[in-house]
Amino acid sequence: MVAAGGILAVLAGSSPATGAEALPSQADMWRIIQQQNRQIEALTRNQKATDERLEATGDAVEEVRRGGSGAASSDTQIGGYGELHYNSGKKSGDDELDFHRFVLFVNHEFTDSIRFYSELEVEHALAGEGQPGEVELEQAFLEFDLNRNNQIKTGLFLVPVGILNETHEPPTFFGVERNPVERNIIPTTWWEGGVSFVNRHDSGFTTEVALHSGLDVDTGTFLIRTGRQKVAQADADNLAATARLKWTAIPGVEVAASAQYQQDMTQSDFAEEISATLFEVHADIRKGPWGFRALFAQWDLDGTAPAALGRDKQVGWYLEPAYYCESAFGEIGFFARYNVYDNNAGNSTDTESAQVDVGVNFWPHENVVLKADLQVNKDPGAMPADDEIANFGLGFMF
User: Fold this and answer.
1) Residue 121, H or E segment
2) Model pLDDT, residue 105
3) Which of 49, 69, 184, 257 is deepest in the core (most CB within 10 A)?
4) Which helix (H) or strand (E) segment is 396 a member of?
């Protein structure tokens, strides 16, 4: 096309032969065609060089995306959360200010179907010998997509039970302190090492089945919370199995039930096997300005030793209604929570503890929260039996 255009231009500029004017000779036409061919070859070479530069740029971008050549990968994400608490109460003694938790998440996507998740936490701001805090690895697992609805995760992960155990960032729950049922009965935060299979059905049901390390309870008390090994050279003579069925088909509604079984929660270090079964069910609802949470959890321990302490049965539950409203500065939420728990529910005496919480959350940003609440404890085994604590806190996540 370029050569033809050049020829036509020459011809268009030539008028019929008159006098000294004449049409180009055959040799002139050949020279014009050769010149146009050279121009075409030059354009082709330039286009090839441009294509090569674009391809090299694309390769460099892909290398950065994968994290090569020492560059930061766009598939690696950093996040975290933290919370500061101020507690003031009668029985608690001196008032206390505590940066309770600071957590960092580091996650990475290797491919569209292979991911890594981790969570590293510092508790009470200062760790070390004689210090109040701890440094803990709460999550470190790989997740593999088998297909659109099925996944396998393996490593160190949060046990799929309760409301707070898997989702406990400060802006996501009411109250400065976590509720006592999910501290003493569940016990949050609770992580184990193992493997888990997850199926997410299009109907809104999610099923998870996990085989993982188990508890190793203090055989002098048989309190559930003492059994967390935190996957730190954990005794694995007796593993545990956990299953959960969760339904989230309606936006703002979660209903779930979990069960766990462990053949011997003393890890074979006691005179008798103490098998343990946990059952938990909860609902978490947010519709418009109204919110509601409810949870019930119960442990059954089989053995004469826990029965002698009344700890063959340990149970707890709570109800938490809430109301949300908007302001010019952010969202405000009011809540009340009634908690009942008993780690000695297997005995015939009154050992049931109750706690009432009333308070407010203020979110100037959806990931930033300021909290205040009044906590009233009724513990028949304590002196005095009643205690009032005022709590103030701030929290964030990113």
Assistant:
1) strand 114-123
2) 98
3) 184
4) strand 386-397
For 139, the token pair is 């999550």
* Inside any domain, residue 53: no
For 272-312, give the DSSP string.
S--EEEEEEEEEEEEETTEEEEEEEEEEEEESHHHHHTT-S
Would you call 227 helix, strand, or coil by DSSP?
helix
Residue 9: inside a domain: no
Domains held by the chain: number: 1
Token pair of 25 as six digits: 């000779």
Cα angle 321, 327, 329; round to 5: 120
Q: Where residue 129 sits, what CATH number does that domain have?
A: 2.40.160.10
| Kind and range of the H or E run holding 59 | helix 26-65
Say how far apart CA 303 and CA 319 lie, in whole Å. Answer: 31
> Residue 157 corresponds to which amino acid?
F
Q: Which pLDDT tens digit goes with each residue over 94-117? A: 799 999 999 999 999 999 999 999
- Integer-rounded Cα Rg, in Å, for the chain is 34
pLDDT tens digit string along 33-52? 777 777 777 666 666 666 66
Query: Residue type at 28?
Result: D
Tokens of residue 277, six digits: 């079964």
C-beta of residue 318 within 8 angstroms of C-beta of residue 285: no
Using omega within 30 degrees of 0 as the cis cutoff, is the peptide bond preceding 384 cis? yes
Q: Which residues of 280-313 are buried (b: 16+ CB within 10 A; e: fewer)?
A: bbbebbbeeeebebbbbbbbbbbbebbbebbbbb
Structure tokens that stand for 357 in this block = 């919480």
Q: Which region, left, alpha or beta, applies to residue 241 given φ > 0 means left and ψ of -120 to 50 means alpha?
A: beta
Which range marks the domain in which residue 345 is found? 82-397
Tokens read off for 344: 């000695």
Q: Report if residue 353 sits inside a domain.
A: yes
